[in-house]
């Protein structure tokens, strides 16, 4: 099937992206506004950028109803700080509670019954139940499009990393113990170990 992008609504384009780019890791982002109100929301347009400097990025889309910026983006524009909390399977249901569209002053962590803890290098708190935290300051912010379906690219400089002791061995994170969640299309998610296989990369393809 050949599909000219010009023939698609933004909703149709979103379904193609979310149904083909998968599984997607989830950035469970905590932020804080200048008044100290905490916000927590998951984003599945999320990946690493590079290791030197240590940069990560995620893309908050504009709201599909009115095209307004999400609270996470507004807070990052105000303060320039955020924490990416990696989602394990044991906290997936509570993460989903935080995905609802609450008023900006509502602390989603309280709604979900998730305990927060002080971060080491930034003001927004970490989610205690998460086993890996990436504390970030805003490195670059880019905006694309306008109105519903448009979005932004938030690039964060990782300033501090917290990893639970039992996950970290010889500089590596134990994937099985982390048990991270991936986003599929619609309401579907996946775990990391359903069908794991290894392919060794050759140093010289020739």
UniProtKB/TrEMBL annotation:
InterPro entries: Flavin_Rdtase-like_dom, Split_barrel_FMN-bd. Keywords: Flavoprotein, FMN. It comes from the Bacteria. Pfam families: Flavin_Reduct. SUPFAM superfamilies: FMN-binding split barrel. PANTHER family: FLAVIN REDUCTASE LIKE DOMAIN-CONTAINING PROTEIN, FLAVOPROTEIN OXYGENASE. One of its GO terms (molecular function) is oxidoreductase activity, acting on the CH-NH group of donors, NAD or NADP as acceptor. The keyword NADP does not apply. The keyword Cytoplasm does not apply. Belongs to the flavoredoxin family. Coiled coil: none annotated. Its cofactor is FMN. This is Flavin reductase like domain-containing protein. SMART domains: Flavin_Reduct. Residues 19-175 form the Flavin reductase like domain.
């Amino acid at each position: 099937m050949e599909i000219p992008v010009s023939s698609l609504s933004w909703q149709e384009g979103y379904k193609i992206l979310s149904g083909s780019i998968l599984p997607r890791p989830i950035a469970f982002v905590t932020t804080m506004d200048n008044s100290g109100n905490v916000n927590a929301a998951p984003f599945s347009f999320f990946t690493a950028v590079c290791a030197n400097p240590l940069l990560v990025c995620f893309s908050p889309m504009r709201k599909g109803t009115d095209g307004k910026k999400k609270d996470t983006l507004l807070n990052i524009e105000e303060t320039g700080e955020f924490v990416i909390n990696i989602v394990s399977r044991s906290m997936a249901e509570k993460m989903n509670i935080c995905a609802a569209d609450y008023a900006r002053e509502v602390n989603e962590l309280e709604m979900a019954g998730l305990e927060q803890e002080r971060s080491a290098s930034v003001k927004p708190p970490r989610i205690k139940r998460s086993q890996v935290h990436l504390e970030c300051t805003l490195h670059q912010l880019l905006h694309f499009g306008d109105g519903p379906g448009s979005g932004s690219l938030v690039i964060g400089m990782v300033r501090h990393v917290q990893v639970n002791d039992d996950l970290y061995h010889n500089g590596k994170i134990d994937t099985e113990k982390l048990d991270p969640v991936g986003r599929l299309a619609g309401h579907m998610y996946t775990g990391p170990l359903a069908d794991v296989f290894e392919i060794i990369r050759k140093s010289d393809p020739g």
